[in-house]
Structures are given as structure tokens and as C-alpha cells.
From TrEMBL:
It comes from Microvirga terrestris. Residues 5-130 form the Gfo/Idh/MocA-like oxidoreductase N-terminal domain. The lineage of its organism: Bacteria, Pseudomonadati, Pseudomonadota, Alphaproteobacteria, Hyphomicrobiales. The keyword Oxidoreductase applies. This is Gfo/Idh/MocA family oxidoreductase. The keyword Oxidoreductase applies.
Length: 379
């Protein structure tokens, strides 16, 4: 067990989440060397210094390229806005570092393809931040599907909704800029596709629609600016398995806080899950007396690994940040050359190709085939 040196770029919402994971992974799992929190980068030295103090990093820099070149760094966590991912990930891989990059991989497919090429050339581990697949309940769903508990799945419906952009008077920020990607597709669609990827594999073709609920937003300091991204996206999908499906995304959905509603309909039953109630799953299976048929609720507990690493008692619940700690453990597993439940750049490119097809379909108003790829699926 060698201790990994960690570099963290960005300290916002996900930067803190990565920092918590690096701080906690050894304590939670007890079977990995405690990572060394080596260098933290922010856009200014002053902010980097303050955040390094708060998050426990030894050194700080206002220039991410200094972090990437630092010999004390083995793994680079990239938690900056989407537009920075390709440049930072490729530089880190070229410097011989492992990379843990937040989703989406990139905002344009050609950039994601360049990132994949850099990962191949480096021979280093390049993983993406798809924390929702790490929920023990999602692993249980995977098992239920593998064991045929609901028979052949013929229809999947995934909805992801939040309301952080629901207020028409919310300030224009990077998520409304075209440099951040298409909008809801890159922000939410990739998460829905990460779940489809681990539960079913690939998507064969898509027929999409995108919408802008608000044409412009106020700008800090005065005036308004035209919104360049689509906060709403709805896509019909056909899986490689032959199942049909719908992915509906809305980041302007008042009242929805962290909804990822998954409904999987099979020939012998139905599975229902919602990230807003992330510690439970609803299972309906046919059979038994009609009077007592219905969905039953299964709560997470130590019998759903790796819940047991966090809490010995069932029903007490994991949280969002815990999923990142699990993902961190899987990343270390992969760096150690073991099989891991992780979406690497190889698998992530399939998600990016699907998003690209969804956006093209929406613009062209027709079904679009998803480009074939070489991804291997999360192992
Ligand atoms: N996996 C998930 O569940 C999840 C959730 C939210 C966000 N994300 C992803 O995480 C990424 C960051 O999103 P966020 O919500 O944390 O954004 P954020 O705005 O909260 O944080 C971004 C951070 O990057 C820093 N930064 C910007 N430019 C920089 C530079 N040149 N050098 C160093 N630091 C710089 C900012 O100062 C800020 O601290 C996005 O790609 C987003 O899609 C993933």
C-alpha cells in the first residue's frame, strides 16, 4: 500500500466533495494507505491558500500548471467548470498523473476524444466523477436485474430535475454559457446515461428535443445576457438491448431538489428509485395473492456493500458525499491494477457520444444513431 499524492484543482461544490473523499477514504475503508493531500490549485493564490488550510492540503498555488508539474502529485482531481476539463486532464495525463475528472468529460465530442487518446498514450488511470452509480442501492438494482428479478426489461424511464435555475431572475453564470456545453444534457443527461451504462450497457439511437425556459438572465453589475444553453432536454432512446426509454431533464424545475427518478419496467416486475430518497428502492414483482400485491420498500443497510464500511446499523442512510468516498476507493482500486466499479474515459466516451447524438438529434429534428465506440463498460 503506497500512499498517493493528491492534487486538487478547484474548490467549489465538487472540489470540496473530492477533498472530503480524499480525507475520509482511508478512515472509512481501512484498507488503503492514507492519501497525502499535496497541492491545491485555485484561480488565485489568496483563495488557494485559504482553501488549502480549510481542506487540509500541504501547499497551494494560484496556477494549476504548477500543480500538474509537481512531483509530489500522483493523482489530479479536476473539479473546475466543464470548459477547463480537456486542457487540464490532458496536461495532467501528459505529466504522468492519474486523473479523476468531474463530469461531463468535455463540452465537445472532439475534445473528449482527445482526452481519451491522452489517457491511452499515458497508460495512467483516467476516471470520471459519476458518483450516482456508486450508491449501494444502484448496485442492488444491478444485482436484481442480473438475477432476472423483474424479467426482461422492456422500458426504462429516467428523469433528472433540480430547481437551481428555475428562477428567471437568477444571475447568468457559467452554466448559461455555450462554453459549458449544451446545457441539461451535459449537466444531467450524462448522469442518467451513467446509470444506463452500468445497468444496461449502451444506447443505440436517440430522438431528442431541447428547450430554453428563459431567453435571457440578469448579469452581475447590470443588464441582461441571452442564455446560450438549454435547461430542458427530453430524449426518446433505444437501448442496445432493444428496450425503449425516455430521458427527461430539467434544471429549471421548481420544487425538485435532487431528483433522479428511475423506473425500470420488466416482464415480471418493476423497479423504482429516486435519488431524493437515495437510501431506498421500490420493488414490485408479480405473483402471490392479488389482494396483497404491491410495491415493497427496501432500505439500505450493511447487507448492501459498501454501506457496511460507513455504518453498522441498517436504515440510517448514506449521503451524497459518501458516494464520492466510495468512488474514491474504486479509483484507488483501479490505480492498484484491480477491477473497479468506475466509469473511465473509455466508458465515458460512450456517454459523450450519446450526448452528442442527443444534441444533434434535437437540432436536426430526427432520430440519430449513436456512434459506435470501443468502451468496455464499467468493470
Ligand atoms: N458529480 C456530480 O454529482 C457533480 C455535481 C456538481 C457539479 N459537478 C461537476 O463539477 C464541476 C465543477 O462544478 P461545481 O458545481 O463544483 O462548480 P463551482 O463553480 O462550485 O466550482 C468550480 C471551482 O473551480 C475554480 N476554478 C475556476 N477556474 C479555475 C482555474 N483556472 N484554476 C483553478 N481553479 C479554478 C473556481 O474558483 C471554483 O472553486 C463541473 O464540471 C460540474 O459539471 C459534478
Amino acid at each position: 500500500m503506497t500512499s498517493l499524492g493528491i492534487g486538487l484543482i478547484g474548490t467549489g461544490y465538487m472540489g470540496k466533495c473530492h477533498a472530503l473523499a480524499w480525507n475520509a477514504v482511508a478512515a472509512v475503508f481501512g484498507d488503503v494507505a492514507r492519501p497525502r493531500l499535496a497541492v491545491l490549485a485555485e484561480h488565485s493564490q489568496e483563495l488557494a491558500d485559504r482553501k488549502a488550510q480549510e481542506l487540509g492540503f500541504a501547499r497551494a498555488t494560484g496556477d494549476w500548471r504548477t500543480l500538474v508539474a509537481d512531483p509530489a502529485v500522483d493523482v489530479v482531481s479536476i473539479t473546475t467548470p466543464n470548459a477547463f476539463h480537456p486542457e487540464m486532464a490532458i496536461a495532467a495525463l501528459e505529466a504522468g498523473k492519474h486523473v479523476w475528472c468531474e463530469k461531463p468529460m468535455a463540452t465537445r465530442l472532439p475534445d473528449a476524444e482527445r482526452m481519451l487518446a491522452a489517457a491511452h498514450a499515458s497508460g495512467k488511470v483516467a476516471a470520471l466523477g459519476y458518483n450516482y452509480i456508486q450508491n449501494p442501492i444502484i448496485r442492488l438494482i444491478q444485482r436484481l436485474l442480473d438475477e432476472g428479478e423483474i424479467g426482461d426489461v422492456n422500458h426504462v424511464r429516467l428523469e433528472m430535475d433540480e430547481d437551481f435555475m428555475a428562477d428567471p431572475e437568477a444571475l447568468f453564470y457559467w452554466k448559461s454559457e455555450a462554453t459549458s456545453g449544451h446545457g441539461a444534457l451535459d449537466d444531467f443527461g450524462v448522469h442518467a446515461l451513467s446509470l444506463i451504462r452500468v445497468l444496461f450497457g449502451g444506447v443505440r439511437r436517440v430522438c431528442g428535443h431541447m428547450a430554453k425556459p428563459y431567453a435571457d438572465r440578469p448579469v452581475q453589475g447590470g443588464g441582461r445576457r441571452a442564455v446560450e444553453t438549454y435547461d430542458i432536454a427530453t430524449t426518446l432512446i433505444e437501448l442496445e438491448s432493444g428496450a425503449s426509454g425516455v430521458i427527461a431533464l430539467n434544471r429549471s424545475a421548481w420544487g425538485r431538489k435532487g431528483r433522479i427518478a428511475v423506473q425500470l419496467f420488466g416482464s415480471k416486475g418493476t423497479i423504482v428509485y429516486d435519488q431524493e430518497r437515495m437510501n431506498e428502492v421500490q420493488l414490485y414483482t408479480v405473483g402471490g395473492p392479488k389482494e396483497t400485491q404491491g410495491f415493497r420498500t427496501i432500505l439500505t443497510g450493511p447487507q448492501h456493500p459498501p454501506y457496511d464500511k460507513f455504518i453498522p446499523a441498517p436504515g440510517h442512510g448514506l449521503g451524497f458525499n459518501d458516494l464520492k468516498i466510495i468512488e474514491c476507493r474504486e479509483l484507488i482500486r483501479r490505480i492498484d491494477g484491480e477491477a473497479a466499479h468506475l466509469i473511465t474515459f473509455e466508458d465515458g466516451i460512450r456517454i459523450e457520444r450519446t450526448v452528442d447524438a442527443m444534441a444533434r438529434s434535437a437540432h436536426e429534428g430526427r432520430w440519430v444513431e449513436v456512434a459506435a465506440g470501443h468502451g468496455t463498460g464499467a468493470a
